Amino acid sequence: MFSAILTFIFALLISAVVIWIVGRMNLGMEVDGFMSAVWAALVIAIVTIVIVFLFNLIPFVNNLDQMHGLIGALIVLIVSAVVLMVSDKFLSGMKVNGFSGAIIAAIAIGVIQWLLSWVVGLFV
Q1: Residues 6 or more apart from 71 whose CB is under 8 A from it?
Q2: Through-space distance between the first and last CA atoms of the chain, rounded to whole angstroms
Q3: Tally of domains within the chain
Q4: Nearest to 110 by CA among 79, 80, 86
């Protein structure tokens, strides 16, 4: 149980660093500071859990995580942008610049998250 909590905290901090980096690069969203990025990471995680749960209730979109190909990637990108826009409504320290800003931020978050996980994987 303790390792699960540590894993969650580590993932939350990595997500906060990614959100903070994207916010500093002005790629579709702005974040006031690192603590705002931590709160944003937590809210984004909660909103993502709710949206994935709702998607899993729809019979023909059974498993969002296992979608393949271009259509699956586009659906995940749009869902990620919607998650950012919904999370923006709950946070005063984060601002998403419309749907196009959310798409750009979602792409940037995905790329930076991949790069960080690749670097961490080199040392673990």
Answers
A1: none
A2: 21
A3: 1
A4: 80
Helix ranges restricted to H, 58-124: 69-90, 98-123
Determine the length of the chain: 124
- Spatial neighbors of 9 by CB under 8 A, at least 6 apart, are none
The residue type of 63 is N
Query: How do residues 72-111 score in pLDDT, each as one tens digit?
Result: 778 778 888 988 898 889 889 899 999 999 999 988 888 8
Give the integer Cα–Cα distance in Å for 51 and 53: 5
- The whole domain housing 63 covers 2-123
H helices of 25-68, in order, are: 34-57
* Cβ neighbours of residue 109 closer than 8 Å, sequence gap 6 or more: 18, 19, 22, 80
